[in-house]
Structures are given as C-alpha cells and as structure tokens.
Specification:
Its EC number is 1.3.1.89. The chain is an alpha/beta fold. The chain contains 16 helices and 16 strands. The longest helix has 18 residues. The protein is globular.
Length: 415
C-alpha cells in the first residue's frame, strides 16, 4: 500500500449544499496520520484512488455527476457500452457515451467478444475524442453475456483475452488514452482466471486492473474474498483496485489495509448513497468525519437527481421519472417510510408526483445506526453459470468457437 504521512485538516461536508451534517467515526479511523497515495493512469492523475464501478442502468452521467460532486478527484466510469452497438451507431449506445461538462475525467467502459469489433469501437473513441480513459469489461457475470463468452467468461480463453487487450491498447495508447481491465476471480473456484488475466493485462499495456473478488458462479452473493485481491497485488507491478463489499468508508480502509490494493472500486455500495465518495475521500485523507443525512436532505438529493435525469432524457420527464424510481428505492432503504408510500413512489409518472409523495414524510428522521453501511441493491447468491458449449475444455479458442462467437449477435448491437 502506497501511503503519504500527512494529515490534512478535517474537511466538513454536507449532503446537498446546505447545512453541515457529519458524524464522527466511532472507531477513530483516520486519526493515525495515514493518507492513501494518488494514482497515475498514463497521463491521468487520480488524486483519490476510488472508482465508481460501471453498472448497467445506473451509472449514466446524471448519477456520475452526483457521485463526483461528493468526491471530485476520483474516477467515475460510465455504464458498459457494447462495442458492436457503438460500431453500429446505435442511438442508445451514443446516449450512454455522453458526458457532462463538469466531469473531470471522461471514463468509458467497453464490452465485446470479437477483438476486431472492440478494436473498431476503441478507434471510434480515440479518433472522436469521446473519452479520456477506456475500461474493458471482463467482470460481468450476467448469463446473456457469459453464454456468448463475454464478461467474466472471456479470460478463460487466454488467446482471446490477450488479443482483445492488445488491439485496444494499440489503438488507445497513441491517443494518450490509458486502458484498464475489470476482471473477476474466475468462472468458479475450480476455474480461476484472475492471476493469468492480471499478468496478461499488465504485459499488454493496461494501466491498472480492478478485481471483483468473486467468481462468476458466486455472482453477488456472500462476501467477496479479499485475499484474492492481496494475491494479485503481490503478482503485479501496475495498480490493482479492489472491488467487492465496499458499503462504507470503513470497508474501504479495511480493504486497503488487508490487501495492499492501490485503491477501491465501489459498485452497489453507492446505490442510494452517492455521498459514500465523500466519506471514502475523508477516510483516505485521515479525516474521521462522515455524512449522516436526514431524510429531508436525501429528498433534496432525489430531486436534484431527477432534474439531471430530465436533462439526460432531453426533457422527457416521464422517462426520467421512470429511471428515477429504482434510485428512489435505494435512497429510501432503511428510512422509516411506510410500504404504501414506497409503492406510491414506484408509480410516479411526473416530478410533481415525486414531490407529492414526499409530503408527509418525517424529513428530520435519520438512518438507524444498525443500518448504516449495510448492503443495498442486488444481493444474489450462487447460480448456474451459462457458457458456450465446450468452453471449459481448453484455455484457447478453436476456429469453430471463434466463428460461432464472432457472428452477428443482436444482443451486442442493440439494447
């Protein structure tokens, strides 16, 4: 773990541009005088090594802007873009590639199986100055992705994995765009891939690797195995970001201390809690202050989020509110809000509907201590892994497998 012995003065924060609302860490974390060192990704300087992990349907620019407003010097990655859809100029793919003017680093994640198609997509990004950083998705465990040999299934095929990274780096490097890779531990515990994948990523020029410390089979269940992150840190010279079960600042500190990782990546832990990036920033700077918003302050964030989504959907309030509904469920989780009110929020069609649902809430209430920094979002346990026929028979792809994988795939070109 790279550290700098320096303790800045405590920085007080607020949830939404109003009164200060912080709480002291009961464990006294951060008083030891240790600050986590910044990260260099090629020409990019990441002052606070915390990453917003790309999440489909979640990390569009409105949510990224919210998260970045709390931790303005981290890395905030857009949701996964399928390479074939980008090459096919799919309108939704281009919408998801949009960045807000305030975003300091434009960070884009690409997904694909065919190295030639992913290379074309990367060239579009580089030639069109569409992003400052490209992340490659080798971590998605969703069946519709892995059954095509993509996501977390792909690193099993060492030749395909190496070729894909090589092609993308060859396109991005001359443009000054660093490439990183997001991986999982493996397909299951009998078919681990993370060490081979990490070495190949480093050898082929990746600037960093993020390891979600679960297998495909484990999906999002149980607790991620942070010892795998520690092992990968020992194996590589490039920075390793740890991912998995970061629900609060204390988790981030513990992961860094246990594994020696260069930084952390936060996925489900920020759903409904974009201010987690402020908490982690404070923790990494040796500052024990944490956000402790009232329900009223959370409602202010919800309304701000709604306004950004309306802009994202070019003024279509109905689409924006429909998108907002899942976020509202996360924002309200743990607060004393009755079931009838929660259902009413899920039926909102307009921004006025959302405001009306907020009437009658106890805006002074706070999240109970027993629920602070607890899991939110998807908590799904082990499930059957879907792979192409004969995928595990060899670590390399056959001619027949490549022909099958690289054919036209409607899922890749559409959304």
């Amino acid at each position: 773990m790279a550290v700098v012995d320096e303790v800045p003065s405590p920085v007080q924060g607020s949830v939404e541009g109003g009164s200060t609302n912080v709480s002291e860490d009961p464990n006294g974390v951060g008083r030891s005088g240790t600050r986590i060192a910044p990260i260099e990704l090629g020409r990019l300087h990441v002052q606070t090594p915390v990453v917003l992990s790309p999440m489909a349907g979640v990390t569009n620019w409105p949510f990224r802007v919210l998260c970045e407003s709390y931790g303005p010097d981290g890395l905030y990655v857009a949701e996964m873009i399928t390479a074939r859809a980008l090459v096919a100029k799919n309108p939704k793919a281009f919408r998801l590639c949009r960045f807000a003017p305030s975003e300091r680093i434009r960070s884009l994640q690409l997904y694909g199986v065919d190295p030639a198609i992913v290379e074309q997509a990367a060239r579009m990004v580089a030639d069109g100055d569409m992003a400052d950083h490209v992340d490659l998705n080798f971590g998605c465990p969703v069946p519709k992705v892995t059954r095509r040999g993509g996501g977390s299934a792909l690193p099993w095929k060492l030749d395909l994995f190496r070729e894909l990274i090589h092609r993308v780096v060859a396109v991005c490097e001359p443009a000054g765009i660093p490439v990183t890779a997001k991986i999982r531990v493996g397909i299951d515990l009998d078919h681990e891939t993370y060490l081979d994948a990490g070495r190949i990523a480093q050898d082929e020029g990746c600037a960093a690797v993020t390891l979600h410390a679960r297998t495909t089979a484990e999906y999002y269940g149980g607790h991620s195995d942070w010892s795998k992150i520690a092992r990968l840190v020992q194996e590589l010279d490039i920075p390793v970001f740890g991912n998995g079960d970061i629900w609060g600042a204390q988790d981030a500190l513990e992961m860094v201390r246990e594994t020696g990782c260069a930084g952390v990546a936060v996925g489900r832990g920020c759903q409904g809690r974009p201010w987690i990036f402020s908490d982690i920033k404070h923790a990494f700077n040796g500052d024990p202050s944490r956000m402790d918003p009232t329900l009223g302050q959370v409602c202010e964030v919800i309304l701000r989020h709604a306004g950004l989504l309306i802009e994202f959907y070019d003024g279509d309030e109905s689409m924006a509110v429909h998108d907002l509904r899942k976020h509202i469920a996360w924002y309200l989780k743990g607060f004393p809000v009755g079931g009838q009110t929660r259902r009413a929020f899920m039926e909102c069609e307009t921004l006025q509907d959302v405001r009306s649902c907020m009437d009658g809430l106890d805006l002074s209430s706070k999240l109970p201590d027993r629920l602070v920094d607890k899991p939110r979002g998807r908590v799904r346990y082990a499930k059957k892994v879907h792979l192409p026929y004969g995928w595990l028979d060899s670590r390399t792809t056959s001619h027949e497998q490549r022909e099958s994988l690289f054919g036209d795939d409607p899922m890749d070109a559409g959304y």
